[in-house]
Amino acid sequence: MAHVQQNAAPAPFTPVPKKSTGGLSPQRERLVKQLILERLGDSLEVTELAQACALSRSHFSRAFKCSTGLSPQDWIRRQRITLAKQLIQYTDMSLTQISLECGFCDQAHFCHLFTRSEGINPFAWRCQMVRGLKSKRSQPSGMHASV
């Protein structure tokens, strides 16, 4: 038997293409993202999202992360911060109003997560955006501000 192993030619290695399995189907991914975006200002439980996809909570969470690269909670948080940035930039709503509109439990929690995400607190971010908009409006057309 040892003689056969010594003289046997190694089988050629053919890499098997990696299948992207384990994620949500495109239809389920669209469904759950739409559900999240429609209810961004509400309290969302992963269990509800899993039920909408007819999956267990743990299977849904793994599949969602496989499909999006983020856990359901992180994806929701990112969408809420994105909405908050739009509201901060384009409305005169207070940060308290924005935090509640975006589904955060209170302004302190919102400010903490915003700062962790953006590296600056939402009030300072708003000030930067307002300054940026004012400087763009005050420049004559064709002129660019020097850096």
Automatic annotation (TrEMBL):
<dbReference type="GO" id="GO:0009893">
    <property type="term" value="P:positive regulation of metabolic process"/>
</dbReference>
<dbReference type="InterPro" id="IPR018060">
    <property type="entry name" value="HTH_AraC"/>
</dbReference>
<keyword id="KW-0804">Transcription</keyword>
<dbReference type="GO" id="GO:0005737">
    <property type="term" value="C:cytoplasm"/>
</dbReference>
<keyword id="KW-0805">Transcription regulation</keyword>
<feature type="domain" description="HTH araC/xylS-type">
    <location>
        <begin position="30"/>
        <end position="128"/>
    </location>
</feature>
<comment type="function">
    <text>Regulatory protein of the TOL plasmid xyl operons. XylS activates the xylXYZLTEGFJQKIH operon required for the degradation of toluene, m-xylene and p-xylene.</text>
</comment>
<protein>
    <submittedName>
        <fullName>AraC family transcriptional regulator</fullName>
    </submittedName>
</protein>
<dbReference type="Pfam" id="PF12833">
    <property type="entry name" value="HTH_18"/>
</dbReference>
<feature type="region of interest" description="Disordered">
    <location>
        <begin position="1"/>
        <end position="26"/>
    </location>
</feature>
<dbReference type="InterPro" id="IPR009057">
    <property type="entry name" value="Homeodomain-like_sf"/>
</dbReference>
<dbReference type="InterPro" id="IPR050204">
    <property type="entry name" value="AraC_XylS_family_regulators"/>
</dbReference>
<dbReference type="GO" id="GO:0043565">
    <property type="term" value="F:sequence-specific DNA binding"/>
</dbReference>
<keyword id="KW-0238">DNA-binding</keyword>
<dbReference type="InterPro" id="IPR018062">
    <property type="entry name" value="HTH_AraC-typ_CS"/>
</dbReference>
<dbReference type="GO" id="GO:0003700">
    <property type="term" value="F:DNA-binding transcription factor activity"/>
</dbReference>
